[in-house]
Write a structure and sequence with these properties.
Elements: E1 5-6, E2 11-16, E3 22-28, H1 38-48, E4 65-67, E5 71-72, E6 75-76, E7 81-86, H2 108-115, H3 131-146, E8 151-159, E9 162-163, H4 186-202, E10 208-215, H5 229-238, E11 243-248, H6 259-262, E12 266-268, E13 274-276, E14 284-285, E15 288-289, E16 294-300, E17 310-313, E18 319-322, H7 333-355
Antiparallel strand pairs: 1-2, 2-3, 3-7, 4-7, 5-6, 8-9, 8-10, 10-16, 11-16, 12-13, 14-15, 17-18
Helix pairs in contact: 1-3, 1-7, 3-7, 5-7
Length: 360
């Protein structure tokens, strides 16, 4: 059975294909009475949508959302919230040459191997366009988290070989949308834009890294053993198209550190309130949040569609040369920022609701 539902109590089910009539989703488990700010949901979708700048795919979609159920007089009713976004600018004829050809590093061959049939128009269900449903569902999760003082923010920390000079805090990300690549380091942002324009001229692509910061998470979220909070966050973001790596806290720097340097320091004030002075663990210990900010990073590979002819094979097992056609991003990372935020918000919202039954 295909897994199209994410979450335990706060659940998102998505549907639709890149070149179908519409995409959408259903949120089940949202508590009644939550103010559903449709302008905020649309804003989040606008951050992800194609055609928002010269550096993204020229596919021009408004991604206008329509909420079909579960909301009355601006508030959630406690019943499933269904929403839909209609496709308008899909050029299916651009993909006729892929009817029998397998694009290198795409899901064409693997989908055929699994289902024996595939929608070759833009990748169908494997297209990153599916992520608009995640962003819409994540926006509703963000509205729920806001009620508890929890904020989820992400930014681009590297594109290709260009890195931001340092790690930024949530308080420093207020102007990140002013950067065309959503990087708060202005000098690095300029270099990233230059790199993307260079690769666009060369017909090539590149990847990058997104850093996500979740502030206001109370201590105690997460489940022992298999549903550890970092494990669920990893699964969530690694399900995003082109995601190839996940690390939390010191991540892959941790193996080279001493325990005396890596161990987080806890302190208590005169009222007995416990806080962390350091945060090498990324805000999670034993799979459960410790009250500090959660910090993780996600690595994305280069987009597989490039404007260069490439050798490949077809369904008949013949070696062929695939011509360059279609519309795509040179680097998907800037548009993936709201997607990473959405998946993180879905995880935290789900665990927030699950935690309410953890003890008497």
């Amino acid at each position: 059975m295909a897994a199209n539902t994410f979450g335990t109590l706060f659940r998102l089910t998505t549907f639709g294909e890149s070149h179908g009539p519409a995409l959408g989703g259903i949120i089940d488990g949202c508590p009644a009475g939550l103010i559903i700010d449709t302008e905020f949901i649309q804003y989040e979708l606008d951050r992800r949508r194609p055609g928002q700048s010269e550096m993204t795919t020229p596919r021009d979609e408004s991604d206008t959302i329509e909420i079909l159920s579960g909301v009355f007089e601006g508030r959630s009713t406690g019943t499933p919230i269904a929403f839909e976004v209609r496709n308008k600018d899909h050029h299916s004829f651009d993909y006729d040459h892929l009817r029998d050809a397998y694009r290198p590093s795409h899901a064409d061959y693997t989908y055929d191997s699994k289902f024996g049939f595939r929608d070759y128009r833009g990748g169908g269900r494997s297209s990153a366009r599916e992520t608009l449903s995640r962003v819409a569902g994540g926006a509703i999760a963000k509205l729920l988290l806001k009620e508890s003082g929890i904020q989820v923010n992400a930014y681009v920390s590297s594109i290709g070989e260009v890195d931001a000079e340092r790690v930024y805090t949530a308080d420093e990300l207020g102007q990140v949308e002013l950067s065309p690549v959503r990087c708060p380091d202005l000098k690095a942002s300029e270099k990233m834009v230059e790199l993307i324009n260079l690769l666009k001229a060369e017909g090539d692509t590149t990847g990058g890294v997104i850093t996500c910061i979740i502030e206001g998470v109370p201590a105690g979220l997460g489940e022992p053993v298999f549903d550890k909070l970092q494990a669920d966050l990893a699964k969530a973001v690694m399900s995003i198209n082109t995601a190839r790596g996940f690390e939390i806290g010191e991540g892959f720097n941790a193996p080279s550190m001493r325990g005396s340097a890596h161990n987080d320091i806890f302190t208590a004030d005169r009222q007995g309130k416990i806080t962390t002075e350091t945060n090498h663990s990324g805000g999670i210990q034993g799979g459960i949040s410790n009250g500090a900010g959660i910090i993780f990073r996600v690595a994305f590979k280069p987009i597989a569609t490039i404007k260069q002819s490439q050798p490949t094979v077809n369904r008949q097992g013949e070696n062929i040369v695939l011509p360059s056609k279609g519309r795509h991003d040179v680097c998907v990372v800037p548009r993936a920022v709201p997607i990473v935020e959405a998946m993180a918000a879905l995880v935290i919202a789900d665990h927030l609701l699950r935690n309410r039954s953890a003890r008497m």
